[in-house]
UniProtKB/TrEMBL annotation:
InterPro entries: Cys_Synth/Cystath_Beta-Synth, TrpB-like_PALP, TrpB-like_PALP_sf. It comes from Clostridium rhizosphaerae. It comes from the Bacteria. This is Pyridoxal-phosphate dependent enzyme. Residues 78-354 form the Tryptophan synthase beta chain-like PALP domain. The keyword Cell cycle does not apply. Its cofactor is pyridoxal 5'-phosphate. The lineage of its organism: Bacteria, Bacillati, Bacillota, Clostridia, Eubacteriales. Pfam families: PALP. SUPFAM superfamilies: Tryptophan synthase beta subunit-like PLP-dependent enzymes. Keywords: Pyridoxal phosphate.
Length: 451
């Protein structure tokens, strides 16, 4: 049997205590000292050195709602975002299946950036050549990081169908038998990682907060991997509502819209193959400019935040935690808390996929677009965007006839890539998703056996 690169199982990513102690300690040391040491694969987890989920419960002076908004923080993952998890999971499953062979295959990473950063990083650690295929209109920090980790870039035009163009390009490159795609939009390791690792971490994250349950889970889909966490949360807390957030300017799920927008990493202008529509209860639209202004408030608005009653220490701590999609998720969580009329016992969980480190240029761009970004403007944004966020643009997708709209969107997006209507129809049965999920134990065993 081939030996595959040494890396964690799904079980170990959820619960690093199950790793050999010396491996975990070595990995934690490398996280601080040498991010390119392959042992960092064992840092792919939501847990910190105390085995606690990295999270923040947002100050109510900011959210203006009684419910507790718990944001899980992707910043602590190696490469700076949780997207490294699906990248690793897809690669390692490919190795287990014998589909990806070390030394033989070049890895393709279709992405809007963070998955590409994850792919470049993982391939560096695991010794693969990599090509990241992504639109040419993302923040410059993304391209720099991808190149820093060693992958080549293959850029497609940023346009109203930019992600679809990256997919088409990936399909073209896949014709070369040397290439293997980590197809995040259509392969189920992304679903498995988030349902098992992120979902169960979310369940742990709310222990001791409010009633210890989760009333709503909000996630803005890019690949719709993260939103799979909701499937696991719903199993544990059946009352939990799952909300998919989209840019108001690109309302593909809500009504087929496909406009350009500023929230990098989400709103990819399709219903991805791995999106479990059955469990998506609400679709919520968030105005893209509010996410960028909200980022400005959190990053540069210490005075405004202090005036809201947020302690200086908390305001300083929050500065680096979010990017625009994290702010989008927070605004969606506020909308959900208001819409569902949640109280102080209730928890809403959401995600910060990455953090500020790749968005300086986004704030520079905002500063250049506004005549005034002084304290008095930021103060008004803090009031309007967070405290004044309304429960509008919330669409209920629980009814069968409304859900059909999403199934039709998925069919439109994926039959053109060769998926049959029959296969797409099989996804309308919950069994499909349970069956994909149940493969986790097989991969856990195989990874242990083969590494
Ligand atoms: C910044 C950012 N936020 C959110 C997402 C969406 O996450 P997912 O692809 O799991 O839906 C991504 C995906 O790349 C991202 O890069």
């Amino acid at each position: 049997m081939n030996k595959i690169p040494f890396g964690p199982t799904y079980e170990e990513m959820l619960n690093p205590k199950k790793m050999l102690k010396k491996v975990r300690n070595k990995a934690l040391k490398a996280l601080k000292e040498d991010e390119l040491d392959p042992i960092n694969l064992f840092n792919i987890t939501w847990k910190d050195e105390n085995n606690e989920v990295r999270k923040i419960v947002l100050p109510k002076e900011l959210t203006g709602v009684d419910a507790n908004i718990v944001v899980m923080l992707g910043k602590g993952f190696p490469s700076g975002s949780h997207k490294v998890g699906p990248a690793y999971s897809t690669l390692i499953e490919g190795c287990v299946d014998g589909y990806i062979i070390p030394g033989e295959h070049t890895i393709l990473g279709p992405s809007t950036g963070n998955f590409g950063i994850g792919v470049s990083y993982i391939c560096n650690l695991m010794g693969y050549e990599a090509v990241v295929i992504m639109p040419d209109n993302m923040s410059k920090e993304r391209y720099e990081r991808i190149q820093k980790y060693g992958a080549k870039l293959d850029l497609t035009p940023g346009s109203e169908s930019d992600v679809i163009l990256t997919l088409e390009r990936t399909y073209k490159l896949k014709e070369d038998p040397k290439n293997r795609a980590l197809a995040q939009f259509e392969l189920f390791p992304n679903y498995r990682f988030h349902r098992y690792v992120t979902g169960n971490s979310a369940i742990e994250a709310v222990k001791g907060i409010g009633n210890g349950r989760i009333a709503a889970f909000c996630s803005a889909p890019g690949s719709a991997g993260t939103i799979a966490a909701g499937d696991e949360i719903k199993k544990k807390f059946p009352e939990c509502k799952i909300a998919a957030l989209e840019p108001y300017e690109c309302s593909t799920l809500a009504n087929g819209g496909r406009g350009q927008h500023r929230i990098e990493g989400i709103g990819d202008k399709m219903c991805t193959l791995i999106h479990n529509i059955l469990t998506t209860d609400f679709v919520i639209l968030i105005k893209d400019e509010e996410t960028v202004q909200g980022l400005k408030v959190i990053h540069d608005g210490i005075n405004a935040l202090k005036e809201l009653g947020i302690p200086e220490e908390t305001a300083n701590y929050m500065r680096e935690l979010f990017g625009p999609s994290g702010i989008c998720n927070i605004l969606g969580a506020i909308k959900m808390a208001k819409y569902l009329k949640l109280g102080p016992d209730d928890n809403v969980v959401t995600i910060a996929t990455d953090s500020f480190d790749r968005y300086n240029s986004v704030i520079e761009n905002l500063n250049s677009r506004y005549l005034e970004v002084e304290d008095f403007v930021v103060r008004r944004w803090a009031q309007d965007i967070f405290l004044g966020q309304k429960d509008d643009y919330v669409y209920d997708f629980r009814r069968k006839d409304v859900k059909q709209q999403l199934f039709s969107q998925k069919e439109k997006d994926w039959t053109k890539f060769g998926y049959s209507v029959e296969y797409l129809d099989s996804m309308k049965n919950p069994e499909f998703w349970e069956s994909e999920y149940s493969k986790i134990s097989y991969y856990n065993e195989k990874i242990k056996e083969m590494r």
